# Entry
Amino acid sequence: MVTQIGKKVVCKKSLRVGRLLTVFTLLGVLLLVIAGCSKKMPENMVFVKGGTFQMGTDEVLEVGFFDEPGDMFEGAKPTHPVKVSSFYISKYEVTQSEWKDIMGKNPSTNQGDNLPVESVSWNEAVYFCNQKSLREGLTPAYTINGDDVSCDWGVNGYRLPTEAEWEYAAKGGNKSKGFLFAGSNNINEVAWYTGNSDEVTHAVGTKSPNELGLYDMSGNVWEWCWDIVDENYYQNSPKDNPRGPEKGDERVLRGGAYVFISYDGEDCRIPVRFPTESEVNFPIFGLRLARTK
# Structure
C-alpha cells in the first residue's frame, strides 16, 4: 500500500514537472515569435520581397530630344528576365532636411525642408549614404578611394539601389499591376512632371504611392542608381541580381523629374534610363536610399 502511494506521488510530481516544462517551452517559443515580429523596420523604408520580373522594354517611344527626334527607350532594350533578392528601399526621396542633417548644407535650387534634395551628384550621393550609416551606427556599404568606389552588398548600411532593384520596386515588386508609371497609368495621379509641376519640385509623398507604398518613383527628381551604364549591358545582363558593368564613364538615373524634355511626362515612364557622369549635379538629380538588411 505504501509502495502504491509512493508511486502515485512520484507520478503526480512527474506530471507536474512535465506540464511546467511544456509551459516554459511554449513561453520561450512565444517570446521568440514576439521578438521576431517586433524587429525594428528601418525608418521610412519599405521591405521589398525578392522575385523575378521582366526588366527593360522592347517598345519604341518617340520623343523630341531638344528638338531632335529620338527613342526615349533606346537604352532600355531588350526586355530580359531578372531575379532580385529581397531588400529595403526608402518610401520617399531623400529630403533637403535629411540631407542638411547629415551633410550640414543644402545644395538644392528649389529650397524647402520637405522637398526632395537636388543638385546632387552620384559621388555626393554615395558619400551621403556612408555618412548616414555612420551616424546611425551601421556598417557603411561603400569604400571610397577618390573616383574608385566599391560596394559591400552584405552589410546593413545605406546605399543606392541597383537599377534592377529600382525598376522592380517602381513596378510594384510582386504586387505589380503593370502600370506605365509607378503606381498608375495616369501620370497626374503619381508624378510631378513638366505638365503639372510649374517647373518646381514638390514636397515628397504628395502624390499617390505605387503598389508597394513608394512615393515619387515617377517624377519630382531623377534618382541615382548604383549602376555604370553600357549600352550593350542589357543584351548580356546576368539574370540574378545584376549590378551593371564594372567599368564605364557614366552612372544612371531613373524615374524622371519635375521638368525635362517631354511635356506629357513620357520621360517618367518606368523603363526610361538617364546616363550621365558621376560628378554632374543638375537641379533635377536627387536620390532614394536602399539597404540590404
